[in-house]
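Data deposition worksheet. Section B asks for the primary sequence of the deposited chain exactly as it was used as input, without tags or linkers unless they were present during the calculation. Section C holds the resulting structure in token form. Section D is free text for depositor observations; keep each observation to a single sentence. Incomplete worksheets are returned to the depositor.
Section A, Depositor: J.P.
Section B:
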Amino acid sequence: MPGHVLQRFIVHEHRMRWPIPADLADRISGREVLSCARRGKYLLINFSHGTQIVHLGMSGSMRRVPLEEALRKHDHAEWLFGHARFLLHDPRRFGAILWHDKADGPLEAHPLLASLGIEPFDPGFTPAYLHRSLKGKAMAIKQALLGGRIVVGVGNIYASEALFRARINPRTAAGTLSAARCDALVAAIRDTLGDALNSGGSTLRDYVNATGQPGAYFTLHAAVYEKAGQPCGVCATPIRRIVQGQRASYYCPRCQKR
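Section C:
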């Protein structure tokens, strides 16, 4: 998209998680895309006068298709360029396409972005930052990671795996983690996410990546996730499953003692 003029933005279904603004097509059609970026799970399509904020929801996808390809059911919006065409597909309509006008202030101040934590591969995500951010928090460390206000991108699968690698029990009070354990956790989060990226990601069973391939490869190599009752690969103790905040957590009771 960057460096190309968006000939037409076409909305086929306005009813998403939040309604797609009725005037959005008029705002951006005929305008050049300056750049594309990402913040957390939000895709950012930048124009000179503002930014289109796109979220794929639980299982949505944005894919590049031939100019002549017919719409599929649940294709809700399309970006039409002279050289390319992109479609947003979202059966559940949990996704969103919103607009932040440049006149409304910095993009970072948008309500959906303002409370997001640091990116896990940002140089600023250091053990000292994590230790400082967790100070005084009584919630379980697993919940603190999932909250997204300290660090983004550590979803349910990756939180369980990272905590196992760092040998931290998911029920441990976040504020009690020492500087040394924060050091281990930062490294474990980056290693876990790096391995997942290299193996194709892991998410819902109906998810596909940009090439149409399923993104479930990482779960095949997970150490604890969805392995309740199976022996730990380190100590052979059976993996346990608990529920925290309505999300399943998996851990080894021996390797991850409280």
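Section D:
The mean pLDDT is 92.
The domain at 5-109 is CATH 3.20.190.10 (N-terminal domain of MutM-like DNA repair proteins).
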